[in-house]
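HUMAN:
Sorry, I am quite new to this. Are you able to go through these amino acid letters and fold codes? The numbers rather puzzle me.
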Amino acid sequence: MSSSTCTKCGGSPFYARRYSGEVLCQACFRASIVEKTRRTIAKYGMLRRGDKVGVAVSGGKDSLSLLEVLSSLSEVKGYELVALTVDEGVDGYREESIEHADWLAKKLGVTHVVVSYKELYGFDLDAALDWKDERDVSSCSMCGIFRRRAIDEAAQRAGVVVIATAHNLDDYVQTFMMNLMHGDVDRLGWLDPLIVDTDFPLRRIKPFMEIYEEEVALYAHLSGLPFQSNNCPYMHEGLRSEVRDYLNELEAKHPGMKNVLLNSSVQVSSKLSASGGPEPIPCSVCGKPSTRGICNVCRMKRLVEQHTKYTPD
């Protein structure tokens, strides 16, 4: 069959996967994303029949796509979905994405649980980052610490047993490379898809971890999912954007390079996770599991309280 037609059905071409040689029409492309997700879930035993799954839905293209894909699979696989959204409190940015998340949840008939930094911590992200000129930690690192705890809180309220996040292949490989560059070797083991992270009370899965970011965006476009008009104003402060650009350049020159890096990352993380790590202990402040005396969330809250106008009630 010529490359001018879909290699699956012979229809009109829409997308060429340079790393595999496939040429797909729109329908076959969308179906391939659902099938790739299904295979990833099965490969790593991510979900089981009867699971109540909390899907972390920020309202961006990746998380909206994940919610829609898992919704289509849930009808056959027999698990229940709940959408979990965190309102970090970024003025002029987060309001739109929460509307998108709420719209899709209602469309799919999925319960939608929203929690906010203001409710959980007493301050929003804009206030927490007010001292950025005086700190070494990046905005994304600080937000990530608070966000993971907030998702757990939303998940516990919803009564779910597993949390699905929309981290795609690009996210996974970028995180692996960043940990290498920062010398965080211990964290590499945490990327093992089979590991249960004892720092968090619920199992976490990444069903999109074998799908390119570009392909998730195309799926969202073909599915008529809304795209956010503005990016997070803090997204370019960290190392990740530079790593992303570098990996995109490599992929453009060497199609399939990201897939190779993913496979290598999974192999390395699985070997490191098998060696185990420190047993979690209760945080001396909040009682949540921690590998140190005080958990990262309480440490970061102390920094915010020391360097901003925020004062706890």
